[in-house]
Amino acid sequence: MKFSNGYWLGREQYIINSPLEAYEAVVDPTDQTKMTVYASYQRLQSRSNMLDIGNSTITLSSPMEGVIGVKLMHFDQDDRVPLYKLTTAPTQVQTQIDQQQASYISGDLTLNFTLHDAFNMDVLYRDKRITGSQIKAQASIADLSGQKLGEVMHANSVTGAQSMMPQGMVRRADHYMREQLSLLPGTNVYGFGEQFGTFVKNGQTIDIINRDGGTGSEQTYKSIPFYLAGKAGVGDQPGTYYGVFVNESKPVSFEVASEVVDRVSFSKRGEDLSYFIISGDTPKSVIGKFNKLTGGSTLPPEWTFGLWLSTSFTTDYSEKTVMSFIDGMAERDIPLSVFHFDCFWMKGFEWTNFEWDQAQFPDPAGMLKRLHDRGLKVCVWINPYISQKSPLFKIGKEHGYFIKQGDGNVWQWDLWQPGNAFVDFTNPAAVKWYQDYLKHLLDMGVDCFKTDFGERIPMHDAVFFNGNNPEGEHNYYTHRYNEAVYDVLIAEKGADDAVVFSRSATVGGQKFPIHWGGDNLSQFHSMADSLRGGLSFLSSGFTFWSHDIGGFEENASASIYKRWTQFGLLSSHSRYHGNIEYRVPWLFDEEAVAVTREFAKLKQKLMPYIYAEAKQAVAEGISLMRPMYLEFPDDPNCAPLDRQYMLGSEIMVAPVMTENGDVDYYLPAGTWEHVIDHRVVTVAQGGKWFAENYDFHSLPLFRRI
Question: Name one GO biological process term (predicted).
Answer without folding.
Answer: carbohydrate metabolic process
